[in-house]
Amino acid sequence: MQTTFGTGQATGESTDLAFTDPLTGLGNHRRFFDKVDRLISDRADDPAPFTVGILDLDGFKPINDLFGHKVGDEILIQVAMRLRASMDSHSTVCRIGADEYAFLYPMVFSEEAAAEKSRTLIEILSAPYDVGERTARLSASVGCSMFYSGDETTEILVGKAETALYHAKRSGRGRVVVYSREMEEAAKRVTHIEQALRRAVSAGEVEPHFQPIVDLRTRRIIGFETLARWTDRDLGSVPATVFIPIAEERGIIGPLSQLVLRKAAEAARSWPKDLFLSFNLSPSQLVDQNTGLHILAILDRTGFDPRRLEIEITETGLMNDPASAEKIVENLRRVGIRVSLDDFGTGQSSLGRLREFHFDKLKIDRAFVSSILDDRPSEHIIRAILAMCEGLGMDVVAEGIEQEAQAERLVQFGCAGGQGFLFGRPVDADATLGYLRDSFRGALRVKAI
């Protein structure tokens, strides 16, 4: 069903189809920008504050997948009707994206009032939606920005609201964030890091470091996990927890990953042949069908045996596009590459994923390992994971081991593999090779590296 109703604009405004969203009857992206442009112009001589906001429905894609696009469209119409009804005579709401709505509050002058208004919208949208004989529930996130100066344009205001929305989505569902000066400084820093990272990737300046993975009973090294490390000439050492998310968000992760894998494979060629190399794939790489081709091309170019490579993927990465991830995993396993499920127990997936995907190994997240000595639930969870993996024929590695007592407890539980600072911190290729050369041939036991 398609419904057309008032757009929430002032009486007498044009209903030109070019400014109207055909599904909901609200104004569209062009209408919204036109309204904000006019308000900025009207207040040029006396720039009194006003509020711009963007509302995004949380988890709308699963609704479409579960109920179908026809029901999804009906829900979008119901959302529009609720938002329209919540607007006063001064305010405007438009649909500017698939599940994004923008609103303009000319008479909301403070950040506190903007946040309160936005929370009201979220509450209005949280009531159940009728979809035939069933009901669905939604939450929403909102980002707002305030007009304070005549120097600000519509593009700037909307950009700030989008930045605030991004922060709201990252902090959880149903949140409101109003753009702040601190956020602006953080955005500038992110842009600075992004530009430096692009230059570093182009110049080949991001390096692989390697952390040992051991047989817990014998403490013999069985492989190394690759971790990206970057030291910039101006920024200094930038933590991976900072630059990896930026690489993901700004579309740099592909070239970055290929650079680090190539360097890692070149380094690992000099290791004993029974040691494997473990390498992480990001969630965005699991939706790019060229990922497998890039990996195979690098292995071919470096002469590294695919059977010595393990690819680590996360539960969250699987959730983005399970069909794409499954195809990539199948193509990699076909040439002998092993696939590990990383950070098990902390993602959004379910045990059903272990049935749908064939994993060679599972890595127990450090969150469980760190509390294994004094938290009974963590102990029981680890025992259950180990029993499950034994039944599924999967290898297991426990991450984040820092104490000898943790390692001993894991051995008692039957965990075969371990990784953590107890066995060695990540070091560069030269230090790793030097350690391996100094070790006893045929008995590569851990010492401080």
Please provide a written account of the structure:
- The chain is of the alpha/beta class and 449 residues long.
- The chain is 44% helix and 20% strand.
- The protein contains 16 helices and 17 strands.
- The strands form three sheets. It has an eight-stranded mixed barrel, surrounded by four helices. A five-stranded mixed beta sheet has the order 2-3-1-6-7, with helices on both faces. A two-stranded antiparallel sheet has the order 4-5.
- β15 (395-398), α15 and β16 (417-419) form a beta-alpha-beta unit.
- α2 (60-67) packs across α3 (69-86) and α8 runs parallel beside α9 (291-302).
- The chain starts with 28 loop residues before the first helix and ends in an 11-residue tail after the last helix.
Helices and strands in order:
Blueprint (H helix, E strand, L loop, with lengths): L28 H14 L7 E9 L1 H8 L1 H18 L5 E4 L4 E6 L5 H15 L3 E3 L2 E3 L2 E9 L6 H17 L5 E3 L2 H23 L3 E9 L5 E12 L3 E3 L1 H10 L3 H16 L7 E5 L10 H12 L6 E6 H6 L1 H13 L3 E7 L7 H5 L4 E4 L1 H4 L6 H17 L2 E4 L5 H10 L3 E3 L7 E2 H10 L11
Parallel strand pairs: 6-7, 9-11, 11-12, 12-13, 13-14, 14-15, 15-16
Antiparallel strand pairs: 1-3, 1-6, 2-3, 4-5, 8-9, 8-16, 8-17, 9-10
Helix pairs in contact: 2-3, 8-9
